[in-house]
Design brief:
Radius of gyration of chain A: 30 Å
Shape of chain B: globular
Shape of chain A: globular
Helix content of chain A: over 70%
Number of helices of chain A: 19
Oligomer: heterodimer
CATH topology of the largest domain in chain A: MetI-like fold
Order of helices and strands of chain A: HHHHHHHHHEHHEHHHHHHHH
Largest interface: A-B, 61 and 60 residues
Number of strands of chain A: 2
Distance between the termini of chain A: 60 Å
Strand order of the largest sheet of chain A: 1-2
CATH architecture of the largest domain in chain A: Orthogonal Bundle
Number of helices of chain B: 14
Helix content of chain B: 55-70%
Strand content of chain B: 5-15%
Strand order of the largest sheet of chain B: 1-2-9
Structural class of chain B: mainly alpha
Structural class of chain A: mainly alpha
Largest sheet of chain B: 3 strands, antiparallel
C-alpha cells in the first residue's frame, strides 16, 4: 500500500485542443457566434448580404456587352428581365476616359497616347517622393521603360531604334539593380561608388513635360518657361556675389519675371523657326472624361503645394499683417463651397482681369481649383508644422540659422514628411471634387454621362453609366487612401 | 509661435536707411509694410479692372434687382411664396432650404456615423467588415455622384402615384406615409383649436408668420425642462449632503410630459394624412424627391466620414482608462458616460465640426437635382435672369461664409469648454 501513489509521476502527452476552439469552427465561434446578440447580428448581416447580392449580381452579369443600342440590349436579355445594358460602356468607354481628345476619327493621327504617357510619367515622377522602397536604379528603369514603350508605339525607324535602345538600357539597369545585394550596394555607396543621378531631377522637369504632352504645340515654349528658372538661378548667383543675397533674390525674381512676360514667346518663336519640334496642338475644350478630372486634380495639387507652404508659414509667422492676410485668405476659401468658386471661374474671372483678357474655361477652372486646394493644403501643412516638437525650432535657433535657412534645412523637410498622408487625402478630396465642374458645363465623366444619356441609342440609361464612373473613382481613391494609410503607419515613429 | 532670436548690435545712435533691411528690430516692420502695399495694389488692380469691365458692359453694380419680382416658382419651401415675390424673398426661401437640408443632414449623418463607427469596432467579424465596406464605398466616390445616383433611385424604382390607384403599391406605416416617385408624403400636425399666427414684417420681402401654437408648445416644453433641471439640482444637493440620492426620475419626466400633453390636447392636435386624390396625393407634408435625395446622399456620404472619426475617437481612449475606472468601482454605464465619452468627445469634436461644415457646403450641390437652395435660387435662376453675376456670387459667398463662421464659432466655443486644460 505504501508505494502506491495518487500523484501521476510522468507527464501526459499534450492533447489537441477541443475541435470547437480551433480551425474554422473555433474561429466562427469566436468571431461570429460568441453570444446571442452576435449570432443574431451575424445572421442578419448574412441575410442583408444575400439580399443585396441577389438583387445586383443577376443585373451585373448580363451578356449585353455587344449591344449597340438600348433596344438591342432588351432583345438580348429578353422581356421581363431587368439587366444591365453594358453596350453603352463598350460603345463609350473611350469617351468617358478621354473626352473628345483627338482619336483620329476626324482626320489626323490618334493622339490619345499623349495623355497616357503623361499619366505614366506622372507616376514615374512621384515615385521617388512617395515610394521610398523603390531604389534609385529602379526609378530610372521605370522612366526608361515608359519612354522606350512610347518610342515603340510611335514607330517609324527612329522611334523603333530609340525605343529598343531605351528598353535595352532599362533592362540592363534593372538587371544590375536586381542582381546586386541591397546591403552590398549600400556599402559600395558608402565607399563612394558612382551612382545614377537623383531621379528627383526628372520630377523637377516633369511639370514642363506634362503640359506639352497634353496641350501640344511647340516644344520650345515649355523649354523657354523652364529656362526662366535657370536664368533666375544664375542671376541670383551673380548678383548675390556682388551685392549681397537680399538684392540677389530681388534681382533674380525681377529678371525671371521679365523673361517670362516679355521674352519667352519671342525666344520660343525664334527657336521654333530654327528647329521646329512640335506636337499637334489640342484645345482645352477637347479635354474631357477622366483625363480632365485627373488633369485638374494633379495640376491643382501640384500648384497648391508651394502656395500652401507660403500660406502656412504666413499663418504661423509673428508678422501681424502677413498673418492676417493669410488667415483671411484661408478662412475665406474654406468657408465657401467650391461651386461658388467655380461660378467665379465661369462668370466672373474675366471681369477681374484687364479688359480684353480672355482665357479659356479650363484654365480659369484650374486657377480657382488651385486656390481652393491651396487653402486646404495650407491647413494640412500647418498641421505638419504644429506636429514638430518645439525643440526642433530651438535647435535651429541654437545653430544660428536664420529664418529661411531654418525652414529649408530643418523645419520643412520634417513638416512636409509628416504632412504627406494629409496631402494625399487632400488630393483624393480635390480629385472627387473635380466632378463639380460638370455643373458649370465642362465634360467630366458626369457631364459626359448626361450627354450620353441624351443620345437616342442610350436614352435614359443611368445605372450602367453611374456604376462605371463610380467604379473608376473608387479604384483611384481607394488605392490612394490605402497608400496614405500605409504611409501613416510607416511614418509613425512613436512606439505605441 | 515662433520667435527668431538674434543678437542685435548695441544701439549705434543715429538711424541709417540700411537698418530697415538688416536690423531685426525694423526688418519685420519693413516686410509687413511691403506685404500690405502689395496686397493693396492687388486689390486696387482687381477693383479697377472690374470697374472698367463693368462700365464697358454697361452694368453699374447695384443691388436694386433684389427688390424686383422674381417670376419663378419654388416648389419646396418653408414659408409662403409666390412667383410675384421679390428676388430677395426667393433667396430667403433658398437660404431656409439650405439650412433645412443642412440641419437634417447633420443630424442624420451623426446618427449613421455613430452607429457605423461603433459597428466597425464590433468583435463580430462580419459586422465590422460590412461597416468597413460601407465606409470605404461611400468615402471613395464623389458626393455629387451619390446625389444624382440617389435621385435616380428615387425616380426610377419607387412607384408612381397611379400605381397606388391600381393597387400595385400601398402606403406604408399603417397607411400614413406614401412613398412615391414624386416624393414622400408624411402626415402633418394640425391643430383644431389653433391660436392663430403672428405676422411679422407686414408685407415686406422678409415677412413671416410665427405660429402661436408652436410658441405655446415650445414654451411649456422648455419650462418643463427647466423645472426638471431644478429637481435634478436639488437631488444633487441632497446627494452631496447625505450620500443618498432621492429617486426623482418620475418627477423629472412628469413635469415635462404632463403639461406638454395637456397643451397639445387643448390645442386639438391631430394628424393630417396624405390621401390619393385624382392623379396625385393631397394633404400631409410633401417632401420632394430633390430634398430627400440630397438629404439621404449627404447624410450617408458624411456618415461614412463621421464613422471613421467616431471609431478613431473611441480607439484613442486607452484601455487603462476604463480599467482604472473599473478599479475605482464604477459601473460600466458610468464608465462610459464619465470616463470614456468625455475623453473620446475631445478627439471627436474638432473633426466632427469640419464635417458638419463640409456637409453644409456640399448642400450647394442641390443644384444638380433641382432642389432650390440658396445656390439654386440666388446663384442659379436669379443670376441667370438678372445677369448680375458679380452681385449674386458675392452675396452667395457672403451667405456661406456667415453660415460657416457661425457653425465653426459655436462648435469651437463648445470644443473650448470640453478641452483638456493643459499647461
Amino acid at each position: 500500500m505504501s508505494d502506491m501513489s495518487y500523484v501521476r509521476s510522468e507527464m501526459l502527452p499534450e492533447r489537441a485542443p477541443p475541435a470547437s476552439s480551433v480551425g474554422l469552427v473555433g474561429w466562427m465561434r469566436a468571431n461570429l457566434f460568441s453570444g446571442a446578440v452576435n449570432s443574431i447580428l451575424t445572421i442578419a448581416s448574412l441575410v442583408l448580404i444575400y439580399m443585396v447580392l441577389a438583387a445586383i449580381l443577376p443585373w451585373i452579369f448580363s451578356p449585353t456587352w455587344n449591344g449597340t443600342s438600348q433596344n438591342e440590349c432588351r432583345e438580348i436579355v429578353g422581356s421581363g428581365h431587368h439587366a444591365a445594358c453594358w453596350g453603352v460602356i463598350n460603345d463609350r468607354w473611350e469617351q468617358l476616359l478621354f473626352g473628345f481628345y483627338p482619336n483620329g476619327s476626324e482626320g489626323g493621327a490618334d493622339q490619345r497616347w499623349r495623355p497616357i504617357v503623361a499619366f505614366a510619367l506622372l507616376f514615374v515622377a512621384v515615385t521617388p517622393v512617395l515610394f521610398s522602397m523603390i531604389s534609385r536604379r529602379m526609378n530610372w528603369v521605370l522612366l526608361l521603360a515608359v519612354l522606350g514603350l512610347t518610342g515603340l508605339y510611335l514607330g517609324g525607324a527612329v522611334g523603333l531604334i530609340l525605343g529598343l535602345a531605351l528598353l535595352g538600357a532599362a533592362a540592363f539597369v534593372g538587371f544590375k539593380a536586381l542582381s546586386t545585394d541591397k546591403e552590398a550596394r549600400a556599402a559600395e555607396i558608402e565607399a563612394g561608388a558612382k551612382r545614377l543621378p537623383n531621379p528627383l531631377i526628372f520630377s523637377a522637369i516633369y511639370p514642363f513635360i506634362a503640359p506639352w504632352l497634353l496641350w501640344g504645340g511647340t516644344v520650345w515654349l515649355p523649354i523657354a518657361a523652364a529656362l526662366g528658372f535657370v536664368i533666375g538661378y544664375y542671376a541670383f548667383v551673380f548678383i548675390a556675389r556682388a551685392l549681397g543675397s537680399l538684392v540677389g533674390i530681388i534681382g533674380a525674381v525681377v529678371i525671371a519675371i521679365v523673361w517670362w512676360l516679355f521674352l519667352t514667346s519671342g525666344f520660343a518663336n525664334l527657336m521654333d523657326s530654327i528647329l521646329p519640334i512640335s506636337l499637334e496642338a489640342v484645345e482645352s475644350r477637347k479635354f474631357g472624361g477622366f483625363m480632365l478630372s485627373i488633369t485638374i486634380g494633379v495640376v491643382a495639387i501640384a500648384c497648391s503645394l508651394p502656395i500652401g507652404i507660403v500660406l502656412a508659414l504666413g499663418r504661423q509667422s509673428d508678422l501681424m499683417i502677413v498673418k492676417a492676410l493669410c488667415v483671411g485668405f484661408i478662412e475665406f476659401i474654406r468657408g465657401v463651397p467650391l461651386i461658388t468658386l467655380l461660378f467665379v471661374a465661369s462668370t466672373l474671372l474675366n471681369i477681374f482681369m484687364p479688359p480684353g483678357t480672355n482665357f479659356d474655361i479650363i484654365l480659369r477652372v484650374l486657377i480657382m481649383v488651385t486656390l481652393f486646394a491651396s487653402a486646404y493644403m495650407a491647413e494640412t501643412i500647418r498641421g505638419g508644422l504644429a506636429a514638430l516638437p518645439r525643440g526642433q525650432y530651438e535647435a535651429a535657433d541654437a545653430l544660428g540659422l536664420d529664418y529661411w535657412k531654418a525652414q529649408r534645412l530643418i523645419i520643412m523637410p520634417q513638416a512636409l514628411k509628416i504632412s504627406i498622408p494629409g496631402i494625399v487625402s487632400n488630393f483624393i478630396g480635390v480629385f472627387k471634387d473635380t466632378t463639380l465642374v460638370s455643373i458649370i458645363g465642362l465634360l467630366d465623366p458626369l457631364g459626359l454621362s448626361n450627354a450620353i444619356r441624351a443620345d437616342q441609342a442610350w436614352n435614359g440609361l443611368v445605372w450602367e453609366l453611374y456604376g462605371f464612373i463610380a467604379l473608376l473613382f473608387f479604384v483611384f481613391c481607394f488605392s490612394m487612401s490605402r497608400y496614405s494609410m500605409y504611409l501613416e503607419r510607416r511614418l509613425r515613429t512613436d512606439h505605441r | 509661435m515662433y520667435h527668431m532670436t538674434s543678437m542685435t548690435d548695441p544701439h549705434q545712435g543715429q538711424f541709417r536707411l540700411s537698418m530697415l533691411l538688416y536690423d531685426s528690430r525694423y526688418r519685420s516692420m519693413t516686410i509687413q509694410i511691403i506685404a500690405l502695399i502689395g496686397f493693396l495694389i492687388l486689390v486696387f488692380w482687381l477693383l479697377s479692372n472690374t470697374a472698367q469691365n463693368l462700365a464697358d458692359l454697361g452694368k453699374q453694380p447695384s443691388f436694386g434687382f433684389m427688390s424686383e419680382p422674381a417670376g419663378y416658382d419654388i416648389n419646396q419651401r418653408l414659408l409662403e411664396y409666390t412667383s410675384q415675390d421679390t428676388h430677395l424673398r426667393a433667396s430667403l426661401m433658398g437660404l431656409l432650404n439650405t439650412l433645412l437640408v443642412a440641419a437634417m443632414g447633420c443630424i442624420a449623418a451623426t446618427f449613421i456615423g455613430v452607429f457605423v463607427g461603433i459597428l466597425r469596432l464590433s468583435p463580430n467579424w462580419i459586422v465590422s467588415r460590412l461597416a468597413a465596406v460601407y465606409v470605404e464605398l461611400f468615402r471613395n466616390v464623389p458626393v455629387l455622384l451619390w446625389i444624382v445616383f440617389t435621385m435616380a433611385i428615387l425616380i426610377e424604382t419607387l412607384p408612381a402615384p397611379s400605381a397606388f390607384r391600381k393597387g400595385e403599391a400601398a402606403m406604408s406605416l399603417w397607411d400614413t406615409v406614401a412613398v412615391t416617385n414624386r416624393g414622400i408624403y408624411i402626415p402633418e400636425p394640425l391643430f383644431s383649436n389653433s391660436l392663430g399666427n403672428i405676422h411679422l414684417f407686414g408685407q415686406s420681402s422678409l415677412r413671416f408668420d410665427i405660429s402661436l401654437d408652436l410658441l405655446a408648445i415650445a414654451f411649456v416644453f422648455l419650462g418643463g425642462l427647466f423645472i426638471s433641471r431644478i429637481i435634478k439640482r436639488r437631488a444633487d444637493v441632497t446627494q452631496e449632503a447625505t450620500g443618498e440620492r432621492p429617486t426623482t426620475w418620475y418627477w423629472r419626466l412628469g413635469v415635462v410630459v404632463v403639461p406638454t400633453t395637456i397643451v397639445l390636447t387643448l390645442l386639438g392636435l391631430h394628424l393630417g394624412y396624405p390621401e390619393l386624390k385624382g392623379f396625385n396625393f393631397k394633404g400631409g407634408t410633401h417632401m420632394r424627391n430633390s430634398l430627400i435625395a440630397l438629404w439621404l446622399a449627404l447624410s450617408i456620404y458624411t456618415g461614412a466620414f463621421i464613422a471613421e472619426i467616431v471609431r478613431a475617437g473611441i480607439l484613442a481612449v486607452s484601455k487603462g482608462q476604463s480599467e482604472a475606472a473599473g478599479a475605482l468601482g464604477l459601473r460600466s454605464n458610468r464608465i462610459m458616460s464619465l470616463v470614456i465619452l468625455p475623453q473620446a468627445l475631445r478627439v471627436i469634436i474638432p473633426p466632427l465640426i469640419s464635417n458638419y461644415l463640409n456637409l453644409t457646403k456640399n448642400s450647394s450641390l442641390a443644384i444638380a437635382v433641382g432642389y432650390m437652395d440658396i445656390t439654386g435660387t440666388l446663384g442659379g435662376i436669379t443670376m441667370n435672369q438678372t445677369g448680375r453675376e458679380l452681385e449674386t456670387v458675392l452675396m452667395l459667398m457672403a451667405v456661406y461664409l456667415v453660415i460657416s463662421l457661425t457653425i465653426s464659432g459655436v462648435m469651437n466655443w463648445y470644443n473650448e469648454s470640453v478641452k483638456l486644460k493643459e499647461r
